[in-house]
Amino acid sequence: MRLCIAQDPAAAELLSRDPLALVVGMLLDQQFAMEGAFAAPRLLADRLGVDALSAADIAAADPEQFAKIFQGPPALHRYPASMASRTQEVCRLLVDRCGGCADGLWTDVPDGTTLLKRVGELPGFGAQKSKIFVALLGQQYGVTPTGWREAAGDHGQEGSRRSVADVTGPDTLAEVWRWKQALKAAAKKKAAASAFDARPAHRNLARFPVQKSSPRNGSTKCLATPPDAGHFCSDFGAVRSEPSHRCAAAGCGAPQFALNCGAPASGEATD
User: Fold this and answer.
1) By three-state DSSP, how is residue 45 classified?
2) What is the DSSP letter of 211?
3) Tell me: the pLDDT tens digits for 58-100?
4) Which of 24, 108, 187, 251 is the most buried (most CB within 10 A)?
5) Where are the domains positioned within the chain?
6) Which CATH number applies to 9-191: 3.40.190.10, 1.10.340.30, 2.60.40.10, 1.10.1610.10?
């Protein structure tokens, strides 16, 4: 089966036959568009002048020169230098443990739990990325040891559209991007709600910018109008006049309204 993650025929051809290219593409799939991440191994192979990536050669490459290859242009990642270094770390581990063969991670693996453990030992492969890669191997690379779907968690669900493991063409790519965007929007909304809920109740401690000596008695008062109610923060109280000053409580800065003024300017107004 030809992988269509990169939406590029040449990249798809390499990913489909070169296990190391697939591992490198998965490694680069962070803080970078997934299409670009999985197209990068093809660009890397072209720049190295090879038909397939070699873990031994990459592991032994001069770090500075290898970083320059990643820098391009075009760059193979948003952070080319750091990801070039991480790619070499992955290749060194593959050389040490699998004789340089990336498919040694899954060849003859007894079950999904073991596969997940092996993948999770790769530099740069956290818990989430490891599960996604297990799902990708199972759904598109024919690596289906017993319990692989369970090991992949939600990413192993048949028919899901939540990660690169589910991308088989332009349509599924669009579905995955929509799911990711919805997830980010929900997370942003939740974070905003949490930040609002965490704000402590406060009093308005502002010294009003309209302070000055009253011509009537010479005392320093808040001269905001109209004088018929009390000080309310617009976040909490009714708005019945133009704002005269802003709340100085940390994180607030909301316009304040002087309703029933005449309180000392240094006084404390309740919210």
Assistant:
1) helix
2) -
3) 999 999 999 999 999 999 999 999 999 999 999 999 999 999 9
4) 24
5) 9-191, 200-271
6) 1.10.340.30
